[in-house]
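thread: overnight batch results

M.L. [08:02]
morning all. the overnight job finished for the chain we discussed friday. pasting input first so we're all looking at the same thing
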Amino acid sequence: MTTLMRCVGIPLDFRDYRPLIGDRRSWFVTGFALLLFFIDAECQFSLTATIIYDAIYPQSSNNSSRSATFKWNNFINSINYIILILGSHAILLAVSQIDWPHLVRVLHRIEQKRFYNERHFKKFRIPCFVGLVASATELISSVTIIWFTWLDSPFLFWLIILGIFLFLVLVLVAFYYFCILCWIAYLMMNALGQDIKASGKDIKQCSSQLKLWKATYYLTGEFVHYINCCFGPFLFLLTTSYFVRMTNNSFYIFSILTYSHDKRHEAKVYTFIIFLIKDWISFIALTYIPSLVRQEAMNITRKLQNLQFEDNALKRQAELLRMEVSLSLPQITAAGFFDIDCKLLPTMVGTTLTYLIILYQFDSNEK
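M.L. [08:03]
and the structure it wrote out:
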């Protein structure tokens, strides 16, 4: 996945960044990344000009028979994709040079931490494997769907679709990167909680590990902090994009099924349904996995509270650690604007239904 990110212009590296400063190959990779960014910007600006022209002169479009609501909905959806792709590219390119090296250093410190053993690292590799398989499956399925849906489209349209899809891969891989790192953070919290629970009856072992638990928790918290630094602005773009895409795709499906009797549109309806289901699954994963990190940290406070010590000094240390954990619970946010957790799911459902009803009223009035 790191190689794939480099291919689309994001020079991520899991090695120590300090010896890479004078590395000529790293400068070449950065130059290649900037070149791809400018190509992406040129493609997106050209596509924006085409969309604006089509919105101003609708008679030149093949969809001139569509309602104004449908056309402007299509316009907003297209602009949404352009902002998502170009904004994500710019954010991730900046992150790769500013915040990503700090995240890599924390990962190196986790590898050297004596708390984690080979059994833990085997568990940490599971999210990487699952993310790789899921991203490859989604890429192959998306290419297949696009191929069969727009098989008879003009060659120029195919070039536009391929260009958009190429840089949309960047968003997809970044999304899986985020989910993998959050899953690893959850496994780290879970391993800490299991160790506290297993040591609950062994007072001597607990007294020797209180400092280790504290250091491990703060290292995990630092890991989550740099996940926020690296992916916070990207999550803001991605989450707001989901709101727009789900509303628009739902309206497309409803509008075509209600007013269109052309059988040629059936394939596109199925495509919109598949992409809508895929977006919902992705959004659930986006909100559920980060919420596990915070939930596991809250479980750690309960397990610390359940520890029983006869020695008053140990009681005070355990209570102090519990208070520190409860006051520093990790939370994934979208650049600080809102939390990324399961509370976004009902918000998404309510917003989608509200705007879908509004769009339907405008569209039915025009009909």
